[in-house]
Description:
alpha+beta; 2 domains; globular; Jelly Rolls; four-stranded antiparallel β-sheet; 228 residues; 12 strands; Arc Repressor Mutant, subunit A; DNA-binding; homodimer
Amino acid sequence: xxxxxxVSYFEPVSIDDVMHQHELEPAVYHTSTAEAGQPLFCxxxxxxxxxxxxxxxxxxxxxxxxxxxxxxxFGYPGDIIGxxxxxxxxxxxxxxxxxxxxxxxxxxxxxxxADEPQLCDQFLRHATAEVxxxxxxxxxxxxxxxxxKVASFLVVLLDRVGENNDCKSCFSLPMSRSDIADFLGxxxxxxxxxxxxxxxxxIIELPNPHRVCVCKSAKLxxxxxxxx
Amino acid sequence: xxxxxxVSYFEPVSIDDVMHQHELEPAVYHTSTAEAGQPLFCxxxxxxxxxxxxxxxxxxxxxxxxxxxxxxxFGYPGDIIGxxxxxxxxxxxxxxxxxxxxxxxxxxxxxxxADEPQLCDQFLRHATAEVxxxxxxxxxxxxxxxxxKVASFLVVLLDRVGENNDCKSCFSLPMSRSDIADFLGxxxxxxxxxxxxxxxxxIIELPNPHRVCVCKSAKLxxxxxxxx
DNA sequence: TTTTCTTGTTGATCTGCATCAAGTAGAATC
DNA sequence: GATTCTACTTGATGCAGATCAACAAGAAAA
Lengths: 228, 228
């Protein structure tokens, strides 16, 4: 699921599973790859495909005309990207790291999924789960301080992709500081300073700018989860 | 639909219509009323019902444990409230004004809508439309200034419920300044000051604190729609 | 190798909005 | 009527994070 909320309730189910349950033609999807930095789709494009991330990380974002950007979500394996209510993408989507995706081809008949009830139900679950995650992110953007934002972001990644290493839990951070800043509604300087502060407080270690080891996860959660 | 975005692409379709198309029992829903201030549901409640607003305005919100609040959306007639991915409401919902709602009873059989494909498809459209609106709101919360936020908010209401009056377009503002502040990620003082600034700049008039007349809608849109 | 470019870090200063505080006006209650 | 309450407005001040600026370090190009 999209990495938007401190806590994730959604259990991803591969579209593949659903499709096989319903004996769809394999021809309605295929797998594809994208190198780091390459776009998957752009805002305004016809939303002909729905993507499931299989490997790597993608980023969805929107731009203001003066260049300000809001990163909407980072898509990790299992996440569904590109559902649209009106057959047009309303965000840009780019690969943050080298990425493998499953590309689901919409039926040519039109916009309705009513003739594929299991798939429709599955997409509905994805969509409502995404709404839930976005609501958590609203709290983050609207009401949290810089430290709370960064800590919340790290906790989500910790729970999603953290790997235990001694008593630490480590994960890579494939996105740039700029991506993180635009996701959290901060500047790159503030993100960098906040990472430094967490490092100096011995809550995290930063072997390099794109790798995080969480030393004191309880403290990190305390900083993040002032939410009820 | 939820009032979250400057531009709204979604054409609301009554659940009622869908249900009649499929000859569902009238017993699966009923209408109900809520007086201003009354709750429809609370965070953590079992999500037994889905609501369609028929009259009035409702508000969905989330609280942090220290009292900070984020208003997620204002629900106007035609909007669907209360879809959940895990049968539990994840926000509070209260009537802002006296409200009439249609209450849709979920089937006892469980969480899946797969046995009602038309209804499922309809809910999926609602959910993806809501995701789209929320993405616009992300830009607002994360990247816009106070003036841009308030102007964007007013433009949405202008387009949704504005009524032409001379060369002005007027609408009521049933929610409190506190509701608006918690929706936009501001304080009540900043909201109030911004309204005053727009009034002094002759862009809007405020016959009373809960009624807005937009005199210069182009200027208002220019302040709001610096988005691409 | 050196040069240039990109990305991230750190410091100094500024500013938009929050916070603190006081005042106003309409509505509800007595 | 007077009193209280609540919601809103307005002013003074403070601060978190933005902005401006310099620097560092690795990567890519020359």
